[in-house]
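To the wet lab folks,

You asked to see what we're planning to order before we commit. Fair enough. Below is the target structure as tokens, and below that is the sequence we designed to fit it. If anything looks off to you, flag it before the synthesis order goes out.
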């Protein structure tokens, strides 16, 4: 298959590009490298030392003899999107290329506007380009479990059948996103669904949970191929961040009660899910939704797991209960369906002490690079700033 991986320089996109290339697909990456400039803007950086995209791709070719194409450009630039689709003629377009941090989108007005323009306009450009130039191309779009929020009923995969006043219909599952970032994903989902219904495009929305772990077989095969490891208060996500905190003698920051429960997935399963979606494309006109996570964890449960494994490595980790900077339920019902990817053959790597130990060891090896001041959550959901 010819697969275009947009956002292929990022945390999920890079290992996916390598995995798909290793499986024999013809892969090309499109990325504007903005994630690296956001690090400069925020004074953050990956805990692991990551090579630049050209060096990474060159090393992969040296090691495997497989070429990965690179197009540096922005999905909000309509000419770039048009030229990229026309030039590569993809069978599948994997779309990771968005601003993906909830705290970043809540910094102030300009970051909220940037996030929604970047994400929604990028996806809209893509829909038009696919519609005109490659109508058979399967769009595999990264959504988020956070589109659903935390309702007091079971979460289904994209749709819910409702009986109302004696009539029945299957409708998009209600959305209650928790940040302007998560809202951008809801807007994307609606736009993609509309394009499938109206133009007969085929798309899969992968509502992914929080991703943890760092390396896959491919990224671990050479230091130049190493994946990024975010740990700061803006881009760091729960488990990876907790491991970096424990490894560097900083408190593990549980926000509020810690009963916030989310779906989680190992990065090694993310790459496999993308391939499963690509190998089993949506039908023409179909807007398909898969919930892409393998198990549910509460934030406190994760923090306690890291604490336990940290003790076995003689780290003396400590839990800190911080006042929650976000507006979210801290104790709630959570039961989300996730059978559709399993039905296609996903065999999950479930979280265990060995994975946490490996993450802690990676963080310990790199702890000299940690900027402890970036652990502190700086963004307050309750305070709108007009900037
Ligand atoms: P990331 O920030 O590491 O990577 C995103 C990549 O997209 C970066 O390399 C960035 O430079 C690029 N990019 C952003 N905007 C672009 C644009 N307009 N044009 C071209 N390139 C652009 O993020 P990630 O963690 O790899 O996430 C990838 C996708 O998966 C995102 O859409 C995110 O919402 C989704 N997702 C991530 C997680 C997670 O825990 N990391 C969980 C659920 C969903
Ligand atoms: N949290 C803490 N302490 C911390 C950091 C986070 O308690 O130090 C809590 C948050 O309050 C939240 C939960 O952990 O309740 C998850 O937060 P997170 O920062 O790990 O993840 P989130 O902001 O939800 O975003 C991440 C990715 C995003 C993706 C989303 C999937 O950055 O791209 O869409 O996970 S989901 O959570 O299912 O929406």
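Sequence we intend to order:
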């Amino acid at each position: 298959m010819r697969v275009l991986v947009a956002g292929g320089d990022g945390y999920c996109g890079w290992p996916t590009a390598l995995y798909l290339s290793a499986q024999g697909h013809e892969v090309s990456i499109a990325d504007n490298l903005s994630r690296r400039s956001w690090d400069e803007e925020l004074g953050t950086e990956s805990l692991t030392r990551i090579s630049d995209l050209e060096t990474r791709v060159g090393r992969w070719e040296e090691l495997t003899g497989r070429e990965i194409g690179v197009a540096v450009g922005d999905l909000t630039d309509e000419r770039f999107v048009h030229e990229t689709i026309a030039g590569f003629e993809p069978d599948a377009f994997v779309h990771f290329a968005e601003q993906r941090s909830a705290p970043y989108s809540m910094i102030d007005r300009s970051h909220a506007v940037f996030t929604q323009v970047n994400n929604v306009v990028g996806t809209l450009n893509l829909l038009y380009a696919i519609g005109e130039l490659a109508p058979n191309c399967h769009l595999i779009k990264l959504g988020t479990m956070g589109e659903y929020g935390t309702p007091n009923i079971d979460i289904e995969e994209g749709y819910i059948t409702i009986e109302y006043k004696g009539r029945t219909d299957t409708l998009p599952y209600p959305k209650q996103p928790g940040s302007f970032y998560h809202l951008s994903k809801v807007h994307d989902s609606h736009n993609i669904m509309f394009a499938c219904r109206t133009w007969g495009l085929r798309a899969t929305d992968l509502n992914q949970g929080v991703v943890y772990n760092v390396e896959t077989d491919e990224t671990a095969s050479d230091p130049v191929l190493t994946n990024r490891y975010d740990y700061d208060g803006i881009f760091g996500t729960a488990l990876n961040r907790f491991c970096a905190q424990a490894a560097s003698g900083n408190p593990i920051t549980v926000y509020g009660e810690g009963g916030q429960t989310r779906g989680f997935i190992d990065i090694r399963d993310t790459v496999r899910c993308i391939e499963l979606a690509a190998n089993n494309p949506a039908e023409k006109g179909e807007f398909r939704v898969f919930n892409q996570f393998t198990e549910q964890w509460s934030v406190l449960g994760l923090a306690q797991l890291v604490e336990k494994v940290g003790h076995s490595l003689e780290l003396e980790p400590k839990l800190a209960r911080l006042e929650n900077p976000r507006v979210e339920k801290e104790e709630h019902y959570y039961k989300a369906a996730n059978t559709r990817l399993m039905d296609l053959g996903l065999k999950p790597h479930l979280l265990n002490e060995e994975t946490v130990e490996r993450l802690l060891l990676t963080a310990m090896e790199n702890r000299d690079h940690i900027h402890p001041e970036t652990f502190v959550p700086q963004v307050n959901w309750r305070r709108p700033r007009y900037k």
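Structural context that might help your review: The first helix runs from residue 13 to 22. The first strand starts at residue 2 and ends at 6.

Thanks,
Computational group
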